[in-house]
C-alpha cells in the first residue's frame, strides 16, 4: 500500500485511514468521498486503475496452491465445516425455479440437517428478484437473509433504467442483499467511469424508504475479465464505487471462482482497508462443491485477511451443492461412518 | 553391446473410477509368491481409497443399472474376450500367486474365463427366473421385476486369487450393481491385472473398483459406509465377518456371509440373486 501511496501521492490524499468502518456504514461513504480525486473524471479513474501494480500470475497461483495444501483435521475441521455452512448463500438461479422449490430451499437453509439440530443455519438464500417475496415469507423470523440477483443477471446486458428498476423491485420485495453484475462490455472496452457510475446508481437504488439499505454485492464475472490485472482493477473500481461485498462470478459461465482469482480479490480487499479504513466482504461463487474446496478458501481468508473476515458478515460462499457435501462430512465426523447422498436432501 | 536387458518391473496400481491411482496414503506392501520370493509391490489401500471408490461406484451406478441387460451382457462377454487375449499373463500370475504348476494354473484361468462368459449370459435371463407375473384377484397386471441393489462392497476370497475373484465379482456386476472389491491380501496381483482388462473392455469407469490391501483395515469402513448397499464377506475370517456384519446392520445392508466354497464347482444362480431387489408394480388392465 505504501507503494501505491508513493506513486499516487498527487492523486490520493493518503492519510492514516483511522478506525475501520464497514462498507455499508455512513462513515464509509465519507471515506470514499475523500477518495473523490481518483474518481473525479474518466481520465483520473483510468490513471488510477492502470497505475495499480501488475499481478504476478505465477506468484499468485503458487501462493493459492500453497495455501490449498494445509491439512485441517478433527476439531479444526468440525469448526471449519460449521463456519462454512453458516457462510453459505444457498442459491437457486434457474429458469425453472418455482415457488415450491424456493420454499423447499428456504426450509433447508433454516434447518440444513433435520437429523442433527445442532447444524448451523446458512447465511442467506439467493434467488431471482421475482422469488424474493416467496423466500422472504418462507424465512420470516429465521434471521436468514434473502439475497436477490439483479441488474439483468447474469449477462447484465440491459439499459440502466431497467437495471435500476430490477434492483428497486427486489429491494421493495424485501431483499436484504442485492447481487449485481457489472457491465463487462463497458469494463473491457475501458469505459471505467460508466461501470463506476452504474455501481453507484445501483447502490443508491438499494436504499429503502426508512433510510436503511440492502447490502450490495458486486459480481465481476472473473471468467470474462480474462486477466488477473483486470480482476484487480475491477475490485478497486467496485470498492471505490461503494460495494459492500465483491463477488467472483455468477456461476453461469465456464470459469467461476478459482483459488487464485479469489485470493487476488482478498488481497485487494486487504489493501483497500489499509488505504481507506473501509472493510469490504468477499464472496466466491460457482464451482465450489466439496468440503475440501471450502476449507481451502477459509484458509486463504484467514491467511490473507485474518480472523475478522471469518464470519458470515464478511465472507460468503455462493453455492448450492456445497451444502450437501458439508453435511455429509459433518455426519461423518459426528457418527464416524461415511455418509451418502441418500442422507441429505436433494434440492 | 551386452545382451543383458534392464528389467522392466510392472508397477501395480489400484483401479478406481476407471483410472489407475496409487494409494492415497502412498503405501505399498511386498507381495511374494508361494515360496516367499518377492514378486512386486502392491498398493496398500487406505480408508480414503475405499471412500473414493464408493463415490466412483455410486457415480457409475445409474448408468450401469440403467443400461439394457443385453448391453451389459455384451460388455461382460467383451471382458472375457480380453481375458482370453491376456491368458498367458494370468496363467503366470496365478501360478506364482497360488504355487500351481503351469498346467493347473492354465486350467484355473480357463475356468475363470468360462465363468465370466457364463455370467455374461445370465444378464438378460435372470429377470425371467427371479421376476414373475403374479396372479392377483382383481383387474390388474401384477409384475415383479428384479432391480440391482446398488453399490456392493466385495471382500474377495483370500485363497483363490483369480477364479474366486471372478466368481464373486461377475455375478455382482452382471445384474447391474457396481462393485468395490478388496482383493486377496496375500495375492492381489491377478486382481490388479484384471483391472487393466476391465479398463479396456467398454466397462464404464467406476462399475468395478479394485483395492488391494487388508480386508481387516478397509472392511470396517466399507461395512459402516452409509452409501454402500450390500457387502459380500467371503474374504473375511469368522471374527472379522461378525464384526462387519454388526457394522453393516446400521443402514440395513444386504450381507452375504462367508461359507465354504468350492470355486471349481458349478456356481448356480445364488450369488446373482443375493444382490437383487424385487420391484412389484400393479397396473390396471384396460377393460
Automatic annotation (TrEMBL), chain B:
This is Aldehyde dehydrogenase family protein. The keyword Oxidoreductase applies. It comes from the Bacteria. Keywords: Oxidoreductase. InterPro entries: Ald_DH/histidinol_DH, Ald_DH_N, Aldehyde_DH_dom. Signal peptide: none annotated. Pfam families: Aldedh. Residues 25-255 form the Aldehyde dehydrogenase domain. It comes from Streptantibioticus ferralitis. Coiled coil: none annotated.
Amino acid at each position: 500500500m505504501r507503494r501505491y501511496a508513493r506513486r499516487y501521492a498527487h492523486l490520493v490524499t493518503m492519510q492514516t485511514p483511522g478506525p475501520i468502518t464497514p462498507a455499508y456504514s455512513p462513515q464509509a461513504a465519507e471515506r470514499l468521498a475523500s477518495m473523490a480525486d481518483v474518481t473525479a473524471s474518466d481520465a483520473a479513474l483510468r490513471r488510477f486503475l492502470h497505475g495499480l501494480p501488475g499481478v504476478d500470475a505465477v506468484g499468485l497461483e503458487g501462493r493459492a496452491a500453497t495455501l490449498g495444501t494445509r491439512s485441517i483435521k478433527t476439531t479444526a475441521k468440525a469448526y471449519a465445516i460449521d463456519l462454512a455452512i453458516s457462510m453459505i448463500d444457498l442459491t437457486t438461479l434457474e429458469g425453472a425455479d418455482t415457488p415450491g422449490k424456493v420454499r423447499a430451499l428456504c426450509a433447508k437453509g433454516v434447518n440444513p440437517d433435520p437429523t442433527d439440530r445442532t447444524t448451523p443455519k446458512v447465511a442467506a438464500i439467493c434467488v431471482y428478484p421475482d422469488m424474493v417475496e416467496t423466500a422472504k415469507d418462507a424465512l420470516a423470523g429465521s434471521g436468514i437473509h434473502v439475497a436477490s440477483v439483479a441488474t439483468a443477471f447474469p449477462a447484465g446486458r440491459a439499459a440502466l433504467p431497467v437495471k435500476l428498476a430490477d434492483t428497486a423491485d427486489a429491494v421493495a420485495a424485501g431483499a436484504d442483499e442485492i447481487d449485481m453484475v457489472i457491465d463487462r462490455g463497458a469494463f473491457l472496452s475501458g469505459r471505467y467511469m460508466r461501470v463506476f457510475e452504474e455501481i453507484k446508481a445501483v447502490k443508491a437504488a438499494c436504499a429503502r424508504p426508512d433510510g436503511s439499505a440492502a447490502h450490495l454485492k458486486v459480481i465481476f464475472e472473473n471468467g470474462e475479465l480474462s486477466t488477473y490485472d483486470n480482476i484487480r482493477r475491477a475490485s478497486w473500481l467496485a470498492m471505490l464505487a461503494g460495494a459492500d461485498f465483491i463477488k467472483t462470478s455468477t456461476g453461469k459461465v465456464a470459469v467461476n471462482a478459482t483459488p487464485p482469482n479469489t485470493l487476488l480479490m482478498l488481497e485487494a480487499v486487504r489493501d483497500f482497508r489499509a488505504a481507506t479504513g473501509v472493510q469490504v466482504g468477499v464472496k466466491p461463487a460457482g464451482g465450489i462443491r466439496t468440503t475440501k474446496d471450502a476449507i481451502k478458501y477459509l484458509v486463504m481468508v484467514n491467511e490473507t485477511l485474518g480472523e475478522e473476515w471469518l464470519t458470515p458478515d464478511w465472507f460468503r460462499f455462493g453455492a448450492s451443492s456445497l451444502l450437501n457435501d458439508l453435511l455429509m462430512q459433518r455426519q461423518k465426523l459426528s457418527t464416524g461412518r461415511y455418509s451418502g447422498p441418500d442422507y441429505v436432501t436433494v434440492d | 553391446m551386452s545382451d543383458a536387458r534392464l528389467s522392466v518391473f510392472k508397477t501395480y496400481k489400484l483401479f478406481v473410477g476407471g483410472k489407475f491411482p496409487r494409494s492415497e496414503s502412498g503405501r505399498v506392501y511386498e507381495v511374494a509368491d508361494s515360496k516367499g520370493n518377492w514378486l512386486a509391490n502392491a498398493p496398500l489401500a487406505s480408508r480414503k481409497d475405499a471412500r473414493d471408490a464408493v463415490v466412483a461406484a455410486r457415480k457409475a451406478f445409474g448408468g450401469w443399472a440403467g443400461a439394457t441387460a443385453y448391453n451389459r451382457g455384451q460388455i461382460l462377454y467383451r471382458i472375457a474376450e480380453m481375458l482370453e487375449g491376456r491368458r498367458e499373463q494370468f496363467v503366470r500370475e496365478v501360478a506364482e500367486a497360488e504355487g500351481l504348476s503351469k498346467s493347473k494354473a492354465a486350467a484355473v484361468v480357463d475356468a475363470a474365463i468360462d465363468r465370466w462368459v457364463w455370467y455374461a449370459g445370465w444378464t438378460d435371463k435372470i429377470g425371467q427366473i427371479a421376476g414373475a407375473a403374479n396372479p392377483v384377484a382383481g383387474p390388474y397386471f401384477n409384475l415383479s421385476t428384479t432391480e440391482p441393489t446398488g453399490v456392493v462392497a466385495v471382500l474377495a476370497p483370500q485363497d483363490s486369487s483369480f477364479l474366486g475373484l471372478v466368481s464373486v465379482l461377475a455375478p455382482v456386476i452382471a445384474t447391474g450393481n457396481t462393485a468395490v472389491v478388496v482383493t486377496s491380501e496375500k495375492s492381489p496381483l491377478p486382481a490388479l491385472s484384471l483391472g487393466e482388462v476391465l479398463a479396456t473392455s467398454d466397462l464404464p469407469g467406476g462399475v468395478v473398483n479394485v483395492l488391494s490391501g487388508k480386508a481387516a483395515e478397509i472392511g470396517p469402513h466399507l461395512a459402516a459406509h452409509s452409501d454402500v448397499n450390500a457387502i459380500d464377506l467371503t474374504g473375511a475370517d469368522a471374527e472379522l465377518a461378525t464384526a462387519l456384519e454388526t457394522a453393516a446392520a446400521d443402514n440395513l445392508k444386504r450381507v452375504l456371509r462367508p461359507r465354504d466354497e468350492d470355486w471349481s464347482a458349478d456356481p448356480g444362480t445364488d450369488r446373482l440373486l443375493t444382490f437383487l431387489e424385487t420391484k412389484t408394480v400393479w397396473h390396471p388392465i384396460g377393460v
